[in-house]
Design a protein that fits this description.
Nonspecific Lipid-transfer Protein, Chain A, alpha+beta, about 25% strand, 7 strands, about 160 residues
Length: about 160
């Protein structure tokens, strides 16, 4: 049986175990940490009012079945919080402006640049509810290939 490290090395992307017939969907190591590093490094300027808000990200097909993260963006706050321990409810009790659902393997593909976010949305691989305009204004930056390739190595493997 091939070790996870060998699978990661063969995938070309550190931290990503490619899907195979025996392992099921791709497993991503620590989405929360990866999202936080991207958020802190890419959103280092002012956040305009149109993009400020609370985003709920539901990642399906993970080791836990589904991982939930709340991403807060404002002029003063850039924060990723897990919703796994709170049953999918934001830890501070607020309702999200936008909820996005995507599988772990599709999120990895979007971040790798092999799946266009708009294509994924139009084909139902990404679903969104709430103020989808907010999603289009700023979250697209969150899903950029260059950011993922740069930060995955530093955030996911540590």
């Amino acid at each position: 049986m091939t070790s996870n490290m060998a699978k990661q090395a063969n995938s070309g992307m550190p931290g990503i175990i490619p899907p195979s017939e025996s392992t099921g969907p791709a497993n991503i190591c620590n989405w929360g940490k990866c999202l936080d590093v991207i958020l802190q490094s890419e959103f280092n300027g002012p956040i305009d009012d149109d993009a400020s808000g609370l985003y709920k990200l539901e990642i399906t097909e993970t080791e836990n079945g589904k991982d939930i993260y709340f991403i807060t963006l404002s002029a003063d706050v850039k924060l990723v919080q897990s919703g796994n321990e709170t049953g999918g409810v934001c830890p501070d009790g607020r309702n999200p402006d936008v909820t996005v659902t995507i599988s772990s393997s599709d999120l990895a593909a979007v971040l790798e640049g092999t799946l266009a976010p708009l294509q994924a949305y139009l084909t139902g691989r990404i679903s969104a509810s709430g103020d989808v305009r907010k999603l289009m204004v700023k979250l697209t930056w969150f899903l950029c290939k260059k950011t993922f390739q740069y930060h995955l190595h530093f955030s996911v493997l540590r």
